[in-house]
TrEMBL record:
Keywords: Cell membrane, Lipoprotein, Membrane, Palmitate, Signal. The keyword Cell membrane applies. This is Extracellular solute-binding protein. Pfam families: SBP_bac_1. Gene3D superfamilies: Periplasmic binding protein-like II. It comes from the Bacteria. Residues 1-21 form the signal peptide. The keyword rRNA-binding does not apply.
Length: 559
């Protein structure tokens, strides 16, 4: 019944919104796109303090289009603290320790343990479920009627974190695949690798052919997906973002382990050390930032890279040289161990302080990102030719084929739409809260591109799988569900909630383990510490409580 109602409502919205899109050269009717602006009445002044992460790609916040537009359209004065990516954990811990939490932490993900600790136990986070109503947050409320938010609910029954609503069409749980330059590979007479050993030989061939190249691009601080891919190849179902294997996960779809505390992790370290010692990865792997990583990819220095090449270089001819590597195995592991994508609705990257003076306003601000307008403006920004560009950005447009293009990519200011979005448009690189088109639209058929097409007054088109479209090409080569081999048993511990006391103990243990493993992993890979000392490393992990840490997860999950 809900689905039928959604489709009926959608048809009404389509009819009403199509007229709005005809005003491409003028102003936008925000209310028709789910945003009743301004949130603060004219003549009143309200300040919201918001903390966001800042990567090397992000402009300073007062040069970011969204904050300028939102200040004017919502009538909110913003004070934004940008926290360098490398300092986020430290700064957030200090905020909660001092009790000085800004109104909103936006783009900053908290673990389930921290949600319990800071929300349920210390009551420093606002229980937002009490505010999700049809009147106050109509967009979020509508999504809650269609999707379960259970992964966001703490043991006390409260929800302290805003959900991230995903599509889950073609991404695995370890992010982007490894891509190789197939033109280079073909010229050297190699086949697409299927094991770590074959990939290593291909990288060696790249290096022998061009000593100045970096065979495998990426870095621990930049595009780091290769780290989890290699762990998967050795049987560890490590998930994207968990570069150092801290989060408990399955091993070969069987036992629950802490990846960094297993013999398989030594195999992973051995391969990474080999790559580092032979110059198959950058000598700056642990210090190179994302901007440098992307720039080197654009310059053509890489023979392989775990990121779609169109994000570094939109040139179609260059992009079409890159092909995705299927799920890798190794000589010591013949079990596919790539985790499936995370849940379609999961804890997002935004929470509200329990001490905010303006809980209702904070809720309205966050609800915006679940509206059709917020889905567009919160990531893609304004359409070209509308007054909302504010003469700050060129905006996006749909070309004659319905494909989305960007004025500031066309004119060379940015290398890709992604760089444009995170550089000068979106609130931060992790600002997306909704990756679906709209309620009632089939997310397996329609992407957010269809919403942009509709906004531009065009008929929404099903997502194209066309190798002649640069932005589509990487996803539809070998990296499809026909050839992507996922682990047989899928179990994700990211969304496990502990009781208050246990959550604090787990979080404290995780912090100590993470700090230690991060440091020692870099030492092993660079050769600063011999792999002969791996057994001593495991003993040191035991001494700081890794077995106790794992047991907490086993007890609560029954695995």
């Amino acid at each position: 019944m809900r689905k039928a109602l959604s489709v009926a409502l959608l048809l009404v919205l389509l009819c009403s919104m199509s007229a709005v899109a005809e005003e491409a050269a003028g102003t936008v009717d925000y209310a028709a796109w789910g945003a009743n602006l301004p949130f603060v009445p004219e003549g009143e002044t309200v300040t919201l303090k918001i903390a966001v992460p800042q990567s090397a790609d992000n402009y300073d916040w007062d040069q970011v289009w969204f904050w300028k537009w939102a200040s004017e359209a919502m009538n909110i004065h913003f004070e934004v603290e940008q926290i360098p990516d490398a300092s986020v954990d430290q700064r957030v811990n200090l905020m909660f320790a001092s009790g000085e939490v800004p109104d909103i932490l936006f783009g900053i993900g908290l673990s389930t343990a921290n949600l319990v600790k800071y929300g349920q136990y210390e009551q420093q986070l606002l229980p937002i479920n009490a505010y999700i109503t049809e009147e106050l947050t109509p967009n979020l409320y509508a999504w809650s009627q269609e999707e379960s938010f259970e992964n966001c609910i703490c043991p006390d029954g409260n929800q302290y974190v805003f959900p991230y609503i995903d599509r889950l069409v073609f991404n695995s749980g370890n992010g982007h695949p490894i891509y190789v330059n197939k033109e280079w590979m073909d010229e050297l007479g190699y086949e697409m690798p299927t094991t770590v050993e074959e990939l290593t030989e291909l990288l060696r061939a790249f290096k022998a052919d061009d000593p100045d190249c970096i065979p495998m691009g990426g870095s621990a601080m930049g595009i780091s997906y290769v780290m989890t891919h290699l762990q998967n190849a050795y049987g560890l179902q490590t998930i994207s973002g968990d570069n150092y294997g801290i989060q408990p996960s399955l091993r070969r779809s069987q036992d629950l382990v802490v990846p960094c505390a297993t013999p398989e992790y030594k195999e992973y370290l051995t391969t990474m050390h080999t790559w580092y010692a032979e110059g198959l990865i950058s000598p700056d792997f642990f210090t190179m930032d994302r901007v440098t990583d992307m720039a080197q990819a654009a310059e053509g220095k890489y023979g392989a890279w775990a990121y779609p090449y169109d994000q570094a270089n939109p040139d179609l001819e260059a992009v079409q040289k890159w092909y995705a590597v299927p799920s890798l195995l190794s000589t010591t592991n013949d079990v596919y161990s790539v985790p499936r994508s995370s849940a379609s609705v999961r804890p997002g990257n935004a929470v509200i302080s329990a001490d905010t003076e303006y809980p209702e306003l904070c809720m309205k601000f966050m609800d915006f990102f679940y509206s059709p307008l917020g889905t567009i403006y919160g990531w893609y920004g304004p359409m070209a030719g509308t007054a909302d560009t504010l003469d700050m950005v060129g905006g996006w447009y749909a070309d004659e084929n319905g494909d989305i293009q960007y004025v500031d990519v066309d004119n060379g200011k940015f290398s890709s739409g992604y760089q444009y979005s995170i550089g000068c448009v979106a609130p931060c690189s992790t600002a997306r809260m909704n990756n679906r088109c709209e309620l009632g639209w089939d997310s397996s058929v329609y992407s957010t591109t269809a919403l942009l097409q509709h906004f531009a007054g065009l008929e929404p088109q099903p997502e194209k799988r066309d190798p002649n479209i640069a932005s589509q090409f990487p996803h539809y080569t070998l990296y499809t569900y026909d050839t992507l081999h996922l682990a047989e048993d899928q179990f994700n511990t990211q969304y496990v909630y502990f009781d208050e006391e246990t959550a604090i103990q787990v979080q404290d243990l995780q912090t100590v383990i993470r700090n230690y493993v991060t440091t020692e992993t870099a030492k092993f890979i660079t050769g600063a510490r011999s792999l002969d000392e791996f057994d001593a490393y495991l003993e040191e992990l035991e001494a700081i409580g890794v077995d106790e840490y794992l047991q907490y997860y086993k007890d609560v999950t029954g695995r």
